[in-house]
Structure formats: C-alpha cells, structure tokens
Design goal:
Length: 253
C-alpha cells in the first residue's frame, strides 16, 4: 500500500440471515469507499425473507462497479458456518467481516489501511486494526457513540471488545480458520481469541468508523438493551465490551 505501490485486494465477507431490509445500505456503504480493488462475498444463511432476491438485484445494479458474489447456504447453519464458507473462496490480502445490518463510514477502509500499514512498518506482529462506532436505531437514527478499548491481549479472554468490521490481514485469518461452528454467541470474541492467541496484535483507532444497528434481532442482544436504555433516558457513550457476550457454544447431547 505505502510507498506508491499498487493497492492490493481487500475481501469483504458479509454473512446474512433475514436482513434483506438492511443489506442494501450495507452494500451502498461499500460503493462509497475510496478504495479498490474489493471483492465482496455475501453468504446467505438460508434466509426465509427476500434477502436472496434483494442481493441478486444488488449484484445486477452494481455490475461493473462492485465485484459482488453470492453463496446460498441450503440449510441454516449459523453465522460462523457462513464465515467459514466465505473463507474457502476469498483471495484478498486483507479481510473485513461486515454484518449485513451494519454499514461503514465513507473513510473506513482507507483510514484502517493507513493505520495498519504504518503500524506494520514498525511491528510485523500487528495483524489488525479496529475502531469505535456510531450506535444507530433500526431506522438509522443516531443513538450514541459505541466505544471499544486499547489493545490488550489478556483482556480479550474475558471481555469482547473488538468489533466485527475490524480490518485484518488475511494471513492472520487463514491461520486460524475454519472457526468453531458450535459457537453461537460471542462469535467475535472466539475469533479474536484465536487470532491473538496465535501471536498477532492489534491497533485501536479511537474514531467511529462504522454504524452498528440496534434492533431486537442482534445476535449479541445489545440492540434490545441499548434501545431500552435510551427509552428510559440513559444517555452517553456505550462501552461495547459491557454488552457483547463472551463465547458460548451450542449445547450437544
């Protein structure tokens, strides 16, 4: 990236389940990024709404502008399974995992890559950068600022503080993939524990670079909690680690 070299491919993985009403805004935010080349892989996890139809329309409408592909899961297998499926086909040097109900600020990718490049020039163990966010309602109204925390390799074991659209070296992702599909809550934390446990470190950007949508269907449960707090008059920024669950696995037997 730096030193006048040509931009390298960034892979954007978008797992989706029944978020057809939101995914158009997600893709639109990628079209506004001042960076290319991008490959966008959407994995639909057997949605029962019209997500697949909407995604096909999006692929057609952005033809020649965005490289978007769709993978359709035959059975609902969960977010982690969708990510694993995408990891089999992506080919970028960098990776960004973006939930289909969220969207990026216009400078997200350029800002993240600049920070990552600079950090890696000093320390090649740096494998990802992450950021704060704007918490928004289901209708897109601003609620509060969502804040992460400075990187701490030990903290990730007990608190989930690194958000999903962190920008990661693909090498760091591929080293620990596939991810554990029995994890249904705390999927972010499980992924980061693996990556950090493999010797990679991260850099925190204290800027709100994406919009995190609050609604009753957030897997972490954060949406319902934040909405209730706002309705009850609780204002001020939210520390994200206080809302995101630590990893828990699907019970068997």
């Amino acid at each position: 990236m730096s030193g006048g070299t040509a931009p390298v491919l960034l892979s954007v993985i978008i797992p989706n389940h029944n978020y057809g009403q939101f995914i158009g805004e997600t893709i639109a935010s990628l079209s506004r990024q001042d960076y290319s080349p991008l490959e966008i892989v959407i994995v639909d996890d057997a949605s029962s709404d019209n997500s697949v139809e909407i995604v096909r329309d999006l692929i057609a409408s952005y033809k020649g502008k965005l490289d978007i592909s769709l993978i359709e899961m035959k059975k609902n297998a969960g977010k982690v399974a969708a990510v694993n499926r995408a990891m089999e086909v992506v080919s970028g040097q960098y990776c960004l995992l973006l939930d289909s109900d969220d969207y990026l600020m216009d400078n997200h990718i350029v800002r993240c890559l600049a920070v990552l490049d600079r950090a890696r020039a000093e320390d090649t163990h740096v494998g990802f950068v992450y950021m704060d966010c704007h918490l928004i309602s289901a209708n897109g109204e601003f609620l509060e600022r969502g804040r992460s925390a400075p990187f701490d390799a030990d903290l990730i074991r007990t608190l989930s503080y690194i958000p999903e659209p962190a920008l990661v070296l693909m090498e760091a992702m591929k080293q620990v993939a596939p991810f554990d599909e029995s994890v249904r809550k705390g999927t972010k934390q499980d992924k980061w524990c693996r990556i950090i446990g493999n010797g990679w470190t991260g850099v925190y950007i204290p800027e709100a670079l994406f919009c995190y949508r609050m609604h009753n269907n957030n897997l972490s449960g954060i949406g319902a909690r934040v909405q209730e707090e706002v309705e009850n008059g609780k204002t001020g920024e939210r520390i994200l680690s206080g809302y995101w669950p630590v990893a828990s696995r699907k019970k068997t037997g």
